[in-house]
TrEMBL record:
Database matches in PANTHER family: GTP-DEPENDENT DEPHOSPHO-COA KINASE (PTHR40732:SF1), UPF0218 PROTEIN TK1697 (PTHR40732)
InterPro entries membership: GTP-dep_dephospho-CoA_kin
Binding locations of GTP: D39, V40, V41, D57, E113, D136
Source organism of this protein record: Halocatena pleomorpha
Assigned EC number: 2.7.1.237
Name of the protein described by the UniProt record: GTP-dependent dephospho-CoA kinase
Keyword Cell inner membrane annotated: no
Coiled-coil segments: none
Function text: Catalyzes the GTP-dependent phosphorylation of the 3'-hydroxyl group of dephosphocoenzyme A to form coenzyme A (CoA).
Involved pathway(s): Cofactor biosynthesis; coenzyme A biosynthesis
Keywords attached to this entry: Coenzyme A biosynthesis, GTP-binding, Kinase, Nucleotide-binding, Transferase
Length: 176
């Protein structure tokens, strides 16, 4: 549905929230539900809690992991396709449903899950937490607030593709 243009890549390197290296400290600050984006982030959070939703692709920094994340703590598991530098309809719909269904859900992505933090910020309820990895720095904790959603909506409208359909799908699932 959306593809990341080269012109926007550098802008996405800045974290959208504070960076943590200690999962316990992050958990103490986080709201609920927690959406984890990335294998290493999910692994760290599983040491203190089971995230409501986790998106993993079996890689870190585009390198396959030697040992996949143990997803047995999750109630449900879904497999989706999402090519690199894109947000596919299948991933967006699955993410939105997983946030809404109340059971812990692992979404196993064939492709890349790196951009999933953006739609998660829009689809998650106010006060929720979206956690994603900041390469060589730690875990970024984003508290879902109106200002953060507005920033992310603006970023999504600068991607290539059907912005209106994506925002309609995500905002339709938006929780207060």
């Amino acid at each position: 549905m959306l593809t990341l243009p080269r012109s926007l890549r550098a802008e996405l390197k800045d974290p959208l929230g504070p960076v943590y290296t200690d999962p316990e400290a992050l958990f103490e600050t986080a709201g609920t539900p927690i959406v984890a984006v990335g294998d290493v982030v999910t692994e760290h959070l599983l040491s203190v809690t089971t995230p409501s939703v986790a998106l993993v692709d079996g890689q870190t920094k585009r390198t396959p992991l030697d040992t996949p994340v143990d997803l047995t703590p999750f109630d449900r598991k879904h497999a989706v396709e999402n090519p690199a530098a894109t947000l596919s309809r299948e991933m967006l719909e699955t993410l939105s449903q997983a946030i809404d269904d109340g059971e812990t859900t692992a979404i196993v992505v064939d492709g890349e899950e790196d951009l999933a933090a953006l739609p998660a910020i829009i689809a998650a309820p106010l006060g929720a937490s979206v956690v994603y990895g900041q390469p060589d720095a730690g875990m970024v904790l984003v508290t879902v607030e109106e200002q953060t959603r507005s920033t992310v909506c603006e970023l999504l409208t600068r991607m290539d593709g059907d912005h209106e359909a994506v925002l309609g799908l995500l905002e339709g699932a938006e929780r207060e």
